[in-house]
Amino acid sequence: MNNGSIYKRKHNRSISLAAALTIAVIQAHAQEQQRIVVSIPDRTLTLFQSGRAVKTWDIAVGKPSTPSPQGELKIISRIKNPTWYSAGKIVGPGPGNPVGTRWLGLSKKGYGIHGTNQPDSIGKAASHGCIRMRNRDVEELFELVEAGATVEFKTVELTGF
User: Fold this and answer.
1) N or C: more exposed end of the chain, with fewer CB within 10 A?
2) What is the 8-class DSSP label of residue 145?
3) What does the longest C-alpha to C-alpha distance in the chain come to?
4) Residue 3 pLDDT
């Protein structure tokens, strides 16, 4: 097929291969423009939009026996008022929920960025590997970030923010 070929899109609209590729590149670029950098030693999470730091929040990270992941992951799910499941226990939405009011699921199974019912843990290495935020902070982040955003975990102290 050549660039003049016609493809069918949603709603039976025809577009050229060049237009389809352009749309795909724009969508991929839009997702990559959102980046979250988690600094494990600084215990901070910074949201970047188009390369610019938008906001930094204090967080709790994984304790030494259950560390936070390393490397680069993606946000793959977004859930308001999640239910928490663990070893046969189920806790529905509400003040007793260990993951608080929001869940941003990561591309490594079982890991996420979430709220907490233990706000005193913020600033500490206290979680089972997830990134904990105060509920009001994760609610703010939830409204700003989309599925597909990159989450980069740093294991050295960051400066210059």
Assistant:
1) N
2) -
3) 60
4) 46
For the residues of 31-76, what is the DSSP string, one character each? HHTEEEEEETTTTEEEEEETTEEEEEEE-BEE-TTSPPP-EEEEEE
- Counting as low any pLDDT under 70, the low residues of the chain are 1-32, 157-161
- Bridge-based pairing of strands 84-86 and 89-91 is antiparallel
Q: Is residue 29 annotated as a catalytic residue, yes or no? A: no
Strand 34-39, strand 89-91: pairing: unpaired
Residue 82 DSSP code? P
| Residue in the block written with tokens 């993606």 | 74
Q: Whats the size of the chain, residue-wise?
A: 161
Question: What is the H or E stretch that residue 77 is in?
Answer: strand 71-80
Catalytic residue among 11, 29, 128, 130: 130
Exposed (0-12), middle (13-18) or buried (19+): which is 124, by Cβ within 10 Å? middle
Q: Is 130 a catalytic residue?
A: yes
Token pair in block for residue 110: 């079982």
Separation between Cα atoms, residue 133 and residue 75, nearest integer Å: 16
